[in-house]
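During the second half of the funding period, the structural biology subgroup turned its attention to how the target accommodates small molecules. The most pressing case was 2-acetamido-2-deoxy-beta-D-glucopyranose, which had performed well in the primary screen but for which no bound structure existed. We therefore specified the complex as follows and requested a full 3D prediction, including the ligand pose.
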Amino acid sequence: MFLDFAMFAFGLPLAIYLLHQTITVSADLGVHNAPDLYQKGGWGDAPYQRYFSDPEIWSPVFDVPIWNRSAISTEGTPHILMSLEYESRMGPYIFSSDDLSLVYSNRSFPFVNNVRVQKYRGENVLTFWEGMQGKGHAQGHCVALNRHYEVVFNVTSSSYFSANADLHECEVTKDNTVLLTIYESTPGYDLSSVGGKENDILLDSCFEEINPENKEVWFSWRASWFFHPTASYHAYEPETNDGWDAWHINSLQKTKEGHYVVDMRRAHTVVLINGTDGWPIWNLGGKGNEFEDLSGGQATAFAWQHHTRFLDEDLTQLTMFDNRQLEWERSLGCSGAGCSRGLRLELTHSPKKTVKLVAEHLAPVGLGCYAMGSHDALSNGNSLIGWGSQAGFSEYGPDGDPILDVAFGRYNTYARTYRVFKDAWVGLPKWEPKVALDAVSGNVMLSWNGATEVVSWVVMVANKRETLVSFDSLNQADQSATVHALKKGFETSVAVGGALDRFKYVRAAALDVNGTMLGATDIVNVADGNGIKVASQPDDCK
Ligand SMILES: *[C@@H]1O[C@H](CO)[C@@H](O)[C@H](O)[C@H]1NC(C)=O
Ligand SMILES: *[C@@H]1O[C@H](CO)[C@@H](O)[C@H](O)[C@H]1NC(C)=O
Ligand SMILES: *[C@@H]1O[C@H](CO)[C@@H](O)[C@H](O)[C@H]1NC(C)=O
Ligand SMILES: *[C@@H]1O[C@H](CO)[C@@H](O)[C@H](O)[C@H]1NC(C)=O
Ligand SMILES: *[C@@H]1O[C@H](CO)[C@@H](O)[C@H](O)[C@H]1NC(C)=O
């Protein structure tokens, strides 16, 4: 049925000037700007909303105390990407950076991490890790989806390792290979130097570069071959199931020379690993620091850090998320060195190795984040900081002013996300848009999960089902009740002037900026309720 419609209509601009324009509203709950009440739990620990037309979806209701719309980065129609968890189900989430409304969610995974857009073979792909979460590490797969949300690759570590790909990294390189972290349980390892047993278990920090298409391994590396456990700042813990996690790798980047920038959180170290022999070329921070700190200790004082990225091929501009502390007590309303920060450093490599602090971004409310976190340096000079174990993210202008501050849950609760990114994304889903009729308002509710190019909707009504099957429906449908409505937010609520009382069938088409039809909903039978989702916002939707 959908296909019939498609054959006639795809690619043809509809004569939308014939239609009645209606003023539309969004059915979304919108955002709060009430940080005191929000953080006191007025709407729960992780406030969410659900939708009439797509009841599978749960999405956050944000609190947005700072939002300077003229200053936030808009280059390339960016979207905000992250993973979120509701009721033990997790998924990738995409939001419009214009109005922060939901664009895409798929809450069908046990665990998802590190959602972002990367370039693979010249195409923008949506990448994330999915699998089973362990304690601070995990086993699963790195997945890439194309603009139709179809799987482009799904890759894990090679059989060279006894564990599958861990959740911390899924980085596509310029060679169209993927960098994966792997946490490998290694029995029979001597940990006596850090207070453990001679015959102990080490949780080794490993990584691999692999071609996701033919699974060819380009490089494999184990920290235990090149590092001593005494490099760790993390106190030895006996009897940890998979072993003691000495170094805790959490980010990887390949350089143009074919070396690897490796972040080792528990060693407070960023290390450049030689892509030929695996030995460190240099260490920044930690016990083996080789860089002179030109900022009085501020540049090398990072600790428990995440998401280390060089912005240039010469490895001089470095950004990271500096967690800086592991404590809960000082974590909210903190100040000074107790706070986590987005950190930007400048390095020189010759004639001398030096490092200096260029910028630091503290959370507007003062946050210490014991785990996770991200630093996305945006192309216009802005910085997007994800607060990791604290449920928020903030954007800063080039001069360091906070211009956006968003909470997606209460701080100091389980609400969290590993990394937050701002990337351009075009989504053209293969599934149809969805429609529901709201019995209370008499409005037609429309949404299309994942579709980024919809600008408006045409809602058609008729008394004969056949009328709405083909493209001709626009001429045959009762013009007096056919409505053209601008899309608003994730779910658009279209007033149809009581048409649901007068007509038997409803169908809606989604149009792009040029009035070209991108897809159409099912035909809904108003009278017998067939296909109708008469919904009201669920009680728990607060
Ligand atoms: C928003 O940002 C712009 C550019 O940085 C700045 O000039 C303006 O003062 C800011 N507005 C507010 C209300 O902070
Ligand atoms: C969600 O992900 C599952 C598992 O990959 C897939 O089968 C399903 O089609 C996806 N749905 C959407 C709306 O993306
Ligand atoms: C990736 O592959 C694994 C192993 O075959 C599978 O369990 C998982 O569902 C796949 N993920 C997606 C999104 O297709
Ligand atoms: C990387 O390792 C190779 C092989 O040991 C060595 O020839 C090369 O000089 C090393 N590169 C650097 C930058 O240390
Ligand atoms: C809309 O039309 C303009 C002018 O023909 C064209 O440049 C643009 O690519 C079209 N946009 C879409 C989304 O088709």
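Two results from this model are relevant to the next phase. The chain has a mean pLDDT of 91. The first strand starts at residue 20 and ends at 22.
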